[in-house]
Design a protein that fits this description.
By secondary structure, this protein is mostly helical. The protein is built from 10 helices and no strands. The N terminus and C terminus are likely disordered.
């Protein structure tokens, strides 16, 4: 089966990967949608070779050169990224990869060509310290506020609807989510191609949401619990699994087939 490459839309999965217990599947989806907006509407360059860097477990060769954070900011983010690791080697690798992600994010923000992104950003939710940097350096004009509010309203609706994906009425929820795509056409810069991306995304959700082989929604694409990832997920037994399945998931999604599969 041909799969849409969700990794190219979802840099926040790095945060999800490092501390997945903090995030639900609906949050993973919302962050993916936000980055899809950023990529299509703002033409922001995302992290290159992103999925490869995840699959090689924070390999140094993917560290990007660019503008560096000051020592206070660097230490702050390094602490956040390494806090979930107990092994010293993993902490060192995570620290280097954290710098790469921070610098890439900073580059993306500095290259904005309009005010759409200047809403409540993903990073505010992922790491509170981002909010200080963001609010200190970016300001909204009236047009930006209107566009930001439009995006926020749509994302709030998606966040609400995505909660129903794990319910028994999954088809109805998916149908309603698909209809939300039309709302994005009201946003300046949003075109039919982006709507088609959404339709493809929803089809993949429909196909993969009931699978139990590690490739369902919320698994290999967003959280990294596929068998090809070199990180040990044994401590995150409930990640990516349906409601009521937390006790039987093992180190990812491979053990979920008897209790509902991957959500």
């Amino acid at each position: 089966m041909n799969k849409i490459d969700l990794t190219k839309y979802s840099p926040p999965q790095t945060y999800l990967l490092l501390n997945p217990k903090d995030y639900s599947i609906k949050e993973c989806f919302k962050y993916c949608v936000m980055d899809l907006i950023l990529k299509k509407v703002l033409s922001i360059e995302l992290v290159e070779n992103y999925s490869e860097s995840l699959n090689t477990s924070f390999t140094y060769k993917y560290i990007k050169k660019g503008k560096h954070f000051n020592s206070y900011e660097t230490n702050l983010y390094e602490t956040h990224f390494t806090s979930v690791f107990t092994d010293e080697t993993d902490q060192i690798q995570a620290r280097y990869f954290a710098k790469a992600v921070m610098e890439s994010s900073l580059k993306r923000i500095s290259n904005l060509r309009n005010d759409i992104l200047k809403t409540e950003p993903i990073v505010n939710r992922l790491n509170p310290s981002w909010a200080f940097w963001w609010n200190r350096n970016l300001k909204l004009d009236s047009t930006g506020k209107k566009q930001a509010n439009s995006i926020r309203q749509i994302l709030n609706t998606i966040e609400s609807e995505i909660q129903h994906l794990a319910s028994t009425d999954k088809e109805k929820a998916l149908s309603k989510l698909k209809s939300l795509g039309n709302n994005f056409l009201l946003i300046p810069g949003f075109d039919q191609n982006m709507l088609e991306d959404f339709e493809t995304l929803f089809k993949e959700i429909d196909k993969d949401s009931a699978r139990s082989d590690g490739y369902g929604i919320g698994c290999s694409y967003w959280i990294g619990c596929d068998t090809g990832n070199t990180l040990d997920f044994s401590d995150f037994a409930d990640v990516g699994c349906s409601s009521g399945c937390s006790s039987g998931c093992g180190g990812g999604c491979s053990g979920c087939s008897g209790c509902g599969g991957c959500s």
